[in-house]
Every structure is written in structure tokens, then in C-alpha cells.
Amino acid sequence: MSFNILGLSPELKKAIERKGYTNPSDIQLQAIPSIIEGNDIMAGAQTGTGKTAAFALPILQKLQNDESKRRRVRALILVPTRELASQVGDSFRSYGNNLRFRTSTLYGGVSIRTQIDKLKKGVDIVVATPGRLLDHLDKKTLNLSELEVFVLDEADRMLDMGFIRDIKKVLKYLPEKKQNLLFSATFPKEIQALADSLLNSPKRIQVASNNSTVDKVVQVVYPVDKSRKRELLTHCIKEEGWFQVLVFSRTKHGANKLASQLSKQGINAVAFHGNKSQSQRTRALNDFKDSKTQVLVATDIAARGIDIKLLPQVVNFDLPYVPEDYVHRIGRTARAGQEGKAISLVSADEHKLLNDIERLLKQEIPRKIIQGFEPTQNLRSSPPRPRSNNKGKGGLQRRGFKSSGKTKPSKGKAAWHKRRPEKDSAK
Q1: Is position 277 within any domain?
Q2: Same domain for 199 and 224?
Q3: Which of 425, 312, 323 has its CA nearest to residue 365?
Q4: Domain total of the chain
Q5: 160-177, pLDDT tens digit by residue?
Q6: Which of 51, 84, 244, 336 could anchor a disulfide with 79, C-beta 3.0 to 4.6 Å?
Q7: Is residue 426 domain-resident?
Q8: Residues 274 and 336 in one domain
Q9: Per the domain annotation, does 212 fall within a domain?
Q10: Is residue 299 domain-shared with residue 153, that is, in the same domain?
């Protein structure tokens, strides 16, 4: 099906054609007509499915239908990270290139004065992170009294990053009568409760089952001793000719250390995490997108909001403590229908984390032992463990590694990471 059936204006269809889009994705096909009709939306879609266009295009269409309120904030999009704010803002400008609307992006790490000066000139669309948006609202430099459409994007990531309280504060500044759109890859109970309080008889859209991964991502586990992970990663990058590789580290310190070690091995690598300044993060991301940097070593702050065309490789140097984060990490590749590969370097102490991920995916990830890097603790199969439900029978086949020592991180450490995910150092 083409975009012609969605009721978009000639200006928007021209912008779509210029970007090379031919057929709408599933989320676009279902969401765009419903948003144009004025329905509240509760949409579940995995990353890389084109959901930004699914709300940006109909919002621009609605604003275009009534231009009498020009230069008043009529649409607000709330996102969890600076990178996603920048990406969504660019999408609105690109899709609305043939229109005359102004889009402003508000996030921390940069001068608030520059943002205030732009807001004074009048804007139509605001894309913001929660902290910086509240700064403007507290300073009364932003008026949302005439807001018509509110979008909460990546709602589950907002929850992960501890932004639920900030979101509730933001909602107090918004007019009661407005169209509300909520997009989330997953729907934990806190997000479901937020949706119930925010949305009015919402149209529910689910284009993929919760926590499912992109079909075109080829997933594989490379079993390896923990002490040889960096050596194996270096080997793969050099011997297999990997370029433009996004590598995920569990911690900021680990990202810095790994990027430094790779650089010493002659591999152009840069760390990317919340302790970096906004200018450093912007430069690192742009250099990576432009293929000036070979490897970007990132923490989970990069799992959402980074859209890199044709990104071929995602590598989990460390498995995440929260299994849902694995889904978001590997969603950075195979975007917009392209193919991609997600490789996880897994040591014996991470076998429980791997089991949790496979339980979430409801499938076993294939293993591949790289010659010369055979682990001293081999893969083994554990007997099926029963599910903790009332059925009594069944269960999920668990896979792990033999180990004479601890085979999982302490409960306290894992729980701490679930409570304290990485947040930006600035709002």
C-alpha cells in the first residue's frame, strides 16, 4: 500500500517521496488515519518500525488544516533522551519542509538562554526531555495553554530512567482538552496505569508482540571467557572487517576503558554515555554516522533514540541486567526493513542474564564458538524449569555455562541496577 491512501496533504506526500519512502509501515498504516481523525492512541511498536513518522506526519497534517494559530505551541512531544529529542525534531523539520511550521528542541547540556530566545520568537512544535521542559515551565518561558496534541514517546524508557514523577509534573501544566498519543515498546504496569489516567477511550495499536525483536536481526551468542572478551572483539573487528560497530557496555567506566583499549589496538573507537557533555555526544554520534569513527562504545542511554541508517553490527560486550534492554539494544540495527546482526559476547558469569533474555524472547539464541577463543567453561543444557504459574506443567528450557564459581551477579547488584538505570548528567 502507498502513502496515497492515508489522506496526507500534497506537501507531506512530496516530503515523503523526497525521503525515498514508498510504502507505509504497519504502525504508520494503522496510526496515521486514526490520529488525523482525532483519536487518542496507545501504540506498541518495536524500535525501527517507523513510529516517529507515524505521529509526526498526522500532527503536521492537523496543524496544516488550521494555520490560524501559527507560532503558538500546539504540539508537544516528550522523549527520554537528548539524542531522541534531536532525532524527532529533525524528523518534524524534514517532513514539514514544504510547510512553514517552526519546531524547537529543548534538552539539557546546552544553553537554556538560546532556547528561550527561540521560544520568544514563537514556535509551533516542541520536542523536549522532561527535565529541561520543566525548567522552561518553571521559568514561565513556555506557554502550553493552547496545546492540541501531546505525545509521550518511548514511555517505558521514561520509566526505566526514573522520569515518571517528572512526567506527572508536566501533565499538570497541560490543558485538559487535547489529543494524547502514547508510544511504547513495552507496557509494564506503571505505564499501563499512566495510560489509563492520561488517555481518553484510546485506539489501541500493537504491530508486534510485546518485547519481540526485529525479525531481520540475526542474533548470535559468542561464548568466551570474560578475560578474553576484548581480545575476541578486536579479533572480530579486524579479521571479519567490521566497520561502524555499536558496542554496548554495562557501565560508563567500562565504556571508557574499552574505547581506550580498542584505540590502543589501532581501532578508532569513542565512548558514548551520560557523563559526556552534549557537544561531545553530538560530535561522537555525527562522526560515527559519517563513518569517521569505526566503533562507538555506548551504555544503555544509546539503546533508544539513535537512528543510524544501515548499521550492520550491534555487539553486546556486556549483557544488560534488565532483559528488556537487550531488545532495545539490538533494535539499533535492522531498522526500516534493513538487515542487521546482533552479537553477544557471553561469559560464564552471565548465563543467568542470558537465560532471562531468552525467556523474554521465548527462544534460544544460537551459539557460535570462535576458533582460538574456545571458552574454558563450555555450554551445557540445564533441565527445563517449571514456570511460576498455576498450570503446574511446562516450563522454559534454560541454557548456561559450566562454572566452578559464581554464575550470576549478586541479587543486590542486579537489583541496584534495576533501580538505578543510567541517566543523563544534565537534564
Answers
A1: yes
A2: no
A3: 323
A4: 2
A5: 788 999 999 999 999 999
A6: 84
A7: no
A8: yes
A9: no
A10: no
- Shared domain for 223 and 363, answered yes or no, is yes
Q: Domain span at residue 22?
A: 3-206
Instruction: Please write the tens of the pLDDT for every residue from 286-327.
Output: 898 888 999 999 998 765 656 666 688 899 999 999 888 888
Three-state secondary structure string covering the chain? CCHHHHCCCHHHHHHHHHCCCCCCCHHHHHHHHHHHCCCCEEEECCCCCCHHHHHHHHHHHHHHHCHHHCCCCCEEEECCCHHHHHHHHHHHHHHCCCCCCCEEEECCCCCHHHHHHHHHCCCCEEEECHHHHHHHHHHCCCCCCCCCEEEECCHHHHHHCCCHHHHHHHHCCCCCCCEEEEEECCCCHHHHHHHHHHCCCCEEEECCCCCCCCCCEEEEEEECCHHHHHHHHHHHHHHCCCCCEEEECCCHHHHHHHHHHHHHCCCCEEEECCCCCHHHHHHHHHHHHCCCCCEEEECHHHCCCCCCCCCCEEEECCCCCCHHHHHHHHCCCCHHHCCEEEEEEECHHHHHHHHHHHHHHCCCCCECCCCCCCCCCCEEECCCECCCCCCCCCCECCEEECCCCCCCCCHHHHHHHHHCCCCCCCC
> What CATH number is associated with residue 259?
3.40.50.300
Note the pLDDT tens digit of each residue in 349-381: 999 999 999 998 888 999 999 999 999 986 554
- 156 and 260 fall within a common domain: no
Condensed to tens digits (0 to 9), the pLDDT of residues 123-145 reads 999 999 999 999 999 999 999 99
**78 and 201 housed in the same domain:** yes
Rounded-to-integer distance, Cα 355 and Cα 359, Å: 6
- Report yes or no on 183 lying in a domain: yes
Pair (102, 196) in one structural domain? yes
Query: Are 111 and 152 in the same domain?
Result: yes
Q: Which three cell numbers stand for residue 31?
A: 496510526
Alpha-carbon distance values, 363 to 26, 170, 324, 358, 399 (Å): 24, 39, 14, 5, 11
Q: What is the pLDDT of residues 200-246, one digit of tens each?
A: 999 999 886 544 555 678 999 999 999 999 999 999 999 988 888 99
Domain end point (choices 173, 206, 239): 206
